[in-house]
From TrEMBL:
SMART domains: LRR_TYP, LRRCT. PANTHER family: ADHESION G PROTEIN-COUPLED RECEPTOR A3, G-PROTEIN COUPLED RECEPTOR 124-LIKE PROTEIN. Keywords: Leucine-rich repeat, Receptor, Repeat, Signal. It comes from the Eukaryota. Belongs to the G-protein coupled receptor 2 family. Adhesion G-protein coupled receptor (ADGR) subfamily. The keyword Repeat applies. This is LRRCT domain-containing protein. InterPro entries: Adhesion_GPCR_A, Cys-rich_flank_reg_C, Leu-rich_rpt, Leu-rich_rpt_typical-subtyp, LRR_dom_sf. Residues 107-156 form the LRRCT domain. GO terms for biological process: cell surface receptor signaling pathway. It comes from Anopheles maculatus. GO terms for cellular component: plasma membrane. SUPFAM superfamilies: L domain-like.
Length: 158
């Protein structure tokens, strides 16, 4: 089965405005890899409820708003490899029961108390994000997020 899709790779795209995909209700595949995206804002993909594959690899993404992919219940493939993501909003993938491929490798994840939810999520979905590794703190650097125990995710300070 062929996806109805758009490939926008290598276009030097820096930003996706809120509601940029307004009324693209048939769009099933969107590839924005190899651009210059630094953030994905809330409601960026709201206008594309049928989206099944979203590829955001090889950008400079540091921030994903918790509402950026919320409501994409048809999503099966989400790739965010090779960005600058250090953390993800809690329960970001909640409601994505069809997700079968999640790729988060080559991101500098800070494995602190704010990311412990991701370890729980990946333990329950072992086929997803197999190469998601910690970049910091030092004692966890290089370790697979899904292999860590919740008590290993610590925050300093109050």
């Amino acid at each position: 089965m062929a996806y109805v899709g758009t490939q926008l790779t290598d276009n030097h795209i820096h930003n996706i405005e809120k509601d940029a995909l307004h009324d693209l209700i048939s769009l099933e595949r969107l590839d924005l890899s190899h651009n210059a995206l630094t953030a994905v804002q809330k409601r960026a993909f709201k206008g594309a409820p049928a989206l099944r594959s979203l590829q955001l690899d090889n950008n400079q993404i540091t921030c994903l708003d918790e509402g950026s992919v919320k409501g994409l219940t048809e999503l099966e493939i989400l790739t965010l490899n090779n960005n600058n993501i250090t953390t993800l909003p809690r329960d970001m993938f909640a409601g994505m029961s069809r997700l079968r491929a999640l790729r988060l490798s080559e991101n500098p994840f800070a494995c602190d108390c704010h990311l412990s939810w991701l370890a729980r999520y990946l333990k329950n979905a072992s086929r997803l994000a197999p190469y998601t590794r910690c970049h910091s703190p030092g004692q966890l650097k290089g370790q697979n997020v899904a292999d860590l125990h919740e008590q290993e995710f610590k925050c300093s300070g109050k």
